[in-house]
Amino acid sequence: xxxxxxxxxxxxxxxxxxxxxxxxxxxxxxxxxxxxxxxxxxxxxxxxxxxxxxxxxxxxxxxxxxxxxxxxxxxxxxxxxxxxxxxxxxxxxxxxxxxxxxxxxxxxxxxxxxxxxxxxxxxxxxxxxxxxxxxxxxxxxxxxxxxxxxxxxxxxxxxxxxxxxxxxxxxxxxxxxxxxxxxxxxxxxxxxxxxxxxxxxxxxxxxxxxxxxxxxxxxxxxxxxxxxxxxxxxxxxxxxxxxxxxxxxxxxxxxxxxxxxxxxxxxxxxxxxxxxxxxxxxxxxxxxxxxxxxxxxxxxxxxxxxxxxxxxxxxxxxxxxxxxxxxxxxxxxxxxxxxxxxxxxxxxxxxxxxxxxxxxxxxxxxxxxxxxxxxxxxxxxxxxxxxxxxxxxxxxxxxxxxxxxxxxxxxxxxxxxxxxxxxxxxxxxxxxxxxxxxxxxxx
Length: 443
Fold this sequence. Notes:
By secondary structure, the protein is mainly alpha-helical. It folds into two domains: 12-192, Growth Hormone, Chain: A (Up-down Bundle); 218-404, Growth Hormone, Chain: A, CATH 1.20.1250.20. It has 20 helices and no strands. Helix 1 (11-33) runs parallel beside helix 5, helix 8 (137-147) packs antiparallel against helix 13 (255-282) and helix 12 runs antiparallel to helix 19. The longest helix is centred in the middle third of the chain and has 32 residues, at 219-250. GO terms for molecular function: transmembrane transporter activity. It is found in: Cell membrane. Keywords: Membrane, Transmembrane, Transmembrane helix, Transport. It comes from Geodermatophilus normandii.
């Protein structure tokens, strides 16, 4: 299977992509639906904040743990079947949550949502890879990640309004119904590849194991994994859980100001994503420069914030949020590495391996920050001081170091392969000057 190679993208490709995008938007909606109903969940299940937090941790753990198995299944069965299975699984999870009256049942419901969510995003990326020309793929990939966040907006506003008007049961029954409607749309519209493009027959288990091993051995897959890890986790941890308490309790901002900064993080990501996509399409062999720049900006800005004497000024916190807004789009570069260095029959497993990086790092960082805060704060108090937050957020340096070493190591391996093929990269300044003059970026 090969994606289209002509410069013009057929209109049907956009129709197929919009269908896949709709499935991803609904997956994000399902993912975020419990988070915006946290207070109501505590009341319905008579549970404390720690039990509700467990829902998020388990959901992330299931999502991350299933990425490789789902990637293997994606290569075997194709995007359409996986998106259908994921949509039905998430709808079932929302149905169970609508009827749940106790914590164990609610946890099982969120596990189903996490499992269905795990099947969706990398399946949509595979659709993009097969329906769009190569230079267009990075931009469409970025747009997929950005527009998918519409699901979070749907959860934050219409779902919350419905929850207050109709109650828990009817709201989550409605969420399940939305999931079923998207499944019907996918069933009628989504196709794995353009007409006339041959599809490989399902691989046997021996070939599946061989492909997975080859996928893991590929340095292009590994640099994708470390790219996803090193760029994604800081912004994800900040947006999902610890950013709001850090801003309100640690930095003394008002809840409204903190909420505004978290909104700014999403808006920045929407603006940065297309720019990164175009840069990756124009400079495919310089993508690691973008990754390392985002890492340097993120770690450097956090260093200034954590070392600032006393509470940081608002302008510095705004800059921190702007920088963190680049993390999500930056992590998408990892999938582009995997796409360009793996053959078509391994695209699913390669994307699954990449997607593990950022979510495992995010999960471990969430747990580590919570553990440090608990150790440094006596009793069961949640009145954490700024010093505790500084120590807790310092755990990020461990994962930045791991990601940096991984990116540099596998970039070196890839450049050595290019050199053996006669492609030697010129110094970056020389390459930029040559491109501006209309010359070659290589020597």
